[in-house]
Specification:
Number of domains of chain B: 1
CATH superfamily of the largest domain in chain A: Dehydroquinate synthase-like - alpha domain
Strand content of chain A: 5-15%
Strand order of the largest sheet of chain A: 1-9-6-4-2-3
Strand content of chain B: 15-25%
Number of domains of chain A: 2
Structural class of chain B: alpha+beta
Largest sheet of chain A: 6 strands, parallel
Number of strands of chain B: 5
CATH topology of the largest domain in chain A: Dehydroquinate synthase-like, alpha domain
Largest interface: A-B, 29 and 26 residues
Distance between the termini of chain A: 35 Å
Radius of gyration of chain A: 20 Å
Distance between the termini of chain B: 43 Å
Shape of chain A: globular
Order of helices and strands of chain A: EHEHHEHEHEEEEEHHHHHHHHHHH
CATH architecture of chain B: 2-Layer Sandwich
Oligomer: heterodimer
């Protein structure tokens, strides 16, 4: 653990039944009366946008406009376009309804507006921006994965460079993180599994990376326990609201944890697989996690920490029954077993070749891109080009 | 009127001196060490990186096919690493913590595209492997870089400025 740490989680959490109906009151108290609602076409089609609009109407609030053209991998251009629309319509607040792409787009928009600029690229960097103009912002996640509603990170694609740009600022955090069971219960099993594994990786990497701290550890450890117990249930029984809410809270806790301690090599390679080969982020996380944990162990790091995590992952009985010297390996095999279980239920990919999006010829470009990802700095073990190629080979088939 | 404490002044002076040594070592190693040479060669054309220490100024470098080049003192950076205080920079420049540890402990902010800063961070790690005694380098680096030239030659390049 480092000699110094910082932690911030200013978002007010609205979690549980009818949380959506509280948004108008909360936004009003923040000074927003004319919000712009951001979402995507899929959510519009399944009726989630309508549910939110109805909930706003109950509180006497109307969205000035509903913008549902945010693609799965949002880009800097989309962010700039939405910021211009916000200004043109005279909006005074943002509501983001969606997964990571929609919420990260809204964060980018809020950053452009706060800095009174027109281009998100002018705000690139890490912890460098002043607060600027405050734009009240509510985030409603529809997946339990990115934890974006509680993070200082926005990942937005730069299609020209074929990379996913990371923007880090404490001023990116939404004012409201709204977890309502109605928003995740229609999520298909396959996406529930993939995004849930993403949340699990957030918890595990934040609990083991160089920037971990006592507060992020507490969030991460609680998160991983909640996720591993609720995820299989939510995948099998999508309408199980209890499991959905436990998973949503686990995802938020994991988001808050990694927002304040960062992630590691799984994310560095995963971002590169997304940028270069368009592998879905959750799938990349699922495929890479056990292999990267094994790599960290081989490099002589994390043994003690992975051993401790077995308690939170598998519970006290398994922890107590496992000899101390093999607890780290047991934690990895527990995660492999969980992945196998989910793969059998919903077809979650376990190898890169199963995604159908990666060619072995892409490995070099993926490794080079991963080396330039900020997440690699705080991974406990050093990884160079050859190490990353080795990991990619290991998870190929 | 408040006066700058002596400690801060000494830290700033040390940072100025060590920063100059670091750049000279980097310039030399970008011709003598294959890994740093490759990073300089692959550096995005014309892009600049600036490192700043409050009260102690800073330096700007760019990578070229012939190695790292130090630019005019006031040249702006496409990406800038700005330490939050002289004592933060002092800890890095005196080998108490690595650049990675400084990042993890919020010792600096970064303006611009982080991907451009990453090759520089890797080069600094390798350079520190040459400049610092092994016991110190082992403490701050995750993996000791393989040395391709004698550290004595690096020190000579630093002292002679070539």
């Amino acid at each position: 653990m480092g000699a110094y740490y910082e932690f911030k989680l200013p978002a007010k959490i609205l979690s549980g039944s009818e949380a959506l109906e509280h948004i108008p009151h909360e936004l009003n108290t923040l000074g927003a009366f004319r919000p712009l609602l951001l979402s995507d076409q899929g959510l519009e089609k399944v009726g989630a946008v309508k549910t939110v609009l109805n909930a706003l109407a109950e509180g006497g609030m109307t969205a000035v406009e509903t913008f549902c053209e945010i693609p799965p991998d949002s880009s800097i251009q989309v962010v700039n376009r939405v910021a211009a629309l916000f200004r043109k319509l005279g909006c005074d607040g943002l509501i983001a309804l969606g997964g990571g792409s929609v919420i990260d787009t809204a964060k980018g928009v809020s950053m452009v507006l706060a800095q009174e600029g027109t281009d998100l690229m002018a705000s690139a960097g890490c912890e460098v921006l002043p607060r600027g103009k405050h734009v009240p912002f509510a985030a409603i996640p529809t997946t339990s994965g990115t934890g974006s509603e509680a993070t200082i990170v926005a990942v937005v694609a730069d299609p020209e460079k074929k990379v996913k740009m990371e923007f880090l600022s404490y001023h990116l955090l939404p004012d409201l993180a709204v977890l309502d069971p109605r928003m995740t219960e229609t999520l298909p099993p396959r996406i529930t599994a993939s995004t849930g594994f993403d949340a699990l990786v957030h918890a595990i990497e934040s609990a083991t990376c160089l920037q971990r701290n006592p507060v992020s550890d507490a969030f991460a450890e609680k998160a991983m326990g909640q996720i591993v117990r609720a995820l299989p249930v939510a995948v099998r029984e999508g309408k199980n609201r209890k499991a959905r809410m436990v998973l949503a809270n686990g995802s938020l806790l994991a988001g808050a944890a990694f927002s304040n301690s960062m992630v590691g090599l799984v994310h560095a390679i995963g971002h590169a697989l997304g940028g270069v080969c368009k592998v879905a982020h959750g799938d990349a996380m699922t495929i890479l996690l056990p292999a990267v944990m094994a790599y960290n162990l081989r490099q002589g790091t994390c043994r003690e920490r992975y051993s401790e995590l077995l308690l939170h992952l598998a519970g006290p009985e398994v922890y107590a029954a496992t000899p101390k010297e093999v607890r780290a390996e047991k934690a990895i095999s527990f995660l492999e077993a969980l992945r196998r279980e989910l793969a059998q239920v919903c077809g979650l990919p376990e190898t890169l070749s199963e995604t159908g999006k990666v060619r072995k010829e892409d490995f070099g470009a993926v490794a080079k891109t991963a080396l330039n990802d900020g997440a690699i700095i705080v991974n406990p073990a050093q990884a160079d080009y050859n190490d990353i190629i080795e990991i990619l080979e290991e998870v190929w088939s | 009127m408040s006066q700058k404490p002596l400690k801060t002044g000494l830290q700033q002076a040390t940072c100025t001196l060590v920063a100059e040594c670091l750049v000279r070592a980097l310039q030399y190693l970008s011709t003598a060490d294959s890994k740093i040479r490759a990073e300089a060669h692959n550096w995005p054309s014309g892009k600049t990186l600036r490192l700043e220490v409050p009260g102690a100024g800073g330096f700007t470098v760019t990578g070229t096919p012939w190695g790292f080049k130090k630019l005019d003192k006031e040249t702006a950076g496409d990406v800038t690493i700005l330490f939050k205080s002289p004592s933060d920079a002092f800890r890095v420049f005196t080998g108490q913590i690595s650049v990675g540890q400084a990042y993890a402990q919020h010792k600096f902010v970064l303006r611009g595209d982080m991907a451009l800063a990453m090759p520089f961070v890797r080069c600094v790690d390798i350079t520190e492997g040459y400049l610092f005694p092994e016991f110190l380098a082992k403490r701050i680096l995750k993996r000791l870089p393989e040395k391709e030239v004698s550290p004595a030659r690096v020190y000579a390049a630093v002292v002679l400025g070539k």
